[in-house]
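Render this sequence as a predicted structure.
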Amino acid sequence: MTSLARQIEQRDPFRNPLNLMLLTKCKLTLIYISSKFILLSEWLSLYIINRKQNSPIGDQVIQMKDIRRQMKGKEGNRVRVTKEFVFDMGHALIGYDGPCKDIHGHTYHLSVTIIGIPLEQPGAAKDGMVVDFGLIKEVVHDKIISQFDHALVLNQSLPDEFKNSLGAVTGKLVYLPVQPSCENLLLHFKNLVEPVFKEKGWELFSMKLYETPTSFAEWCVSDN
């Protein structure tokens, strides 16, 4: 070894391969000891729980694994699932300063998004699902599509004589307490289905209503 090399090693001992190997071994040993300490702490916690509840220690281990899996899901395994619907509906915007003040219709596209953790229950019918798409369809059809598909939706502030005239030519009339704009329709639809979703344990994440292929309104829970 040259005198220059010795000087470099004296200034920076970690340039020596032997020193680097020893340092790496120390780090690995510390990591191993730390992991064992964590496991020991968990087993001690389970032992204390077992003594208090007088239940088998194996059951407590299973519970701990379930808690870990749930926490992992909450941190990174939440999935959004979306069901889309298409229906035709007429409306008019009373007092609007454009052609939409007259009765006209649209082919609406409605998207409903649920967020959650996929079920981890091997052998179960719904294993791997946040929610069955068919179940979302049942709720939306019952609360929205069956009432609004091929209906005429108007503001209930219309004069009674006008309502009577419309009733004579069409039987599917829906009157809302607000202007049936795309935005208000979306909020109305959201208020129809969200309570049912909550009863079933589903978390509504967003809804989107297209009035035309290039125009839509969107509601998202993160905005509220």
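Summary. The first helix runs from residue 3 to 11. The helical segments are 3-11, 17-53, 57-76, 133-148, 160-167, 182-199.
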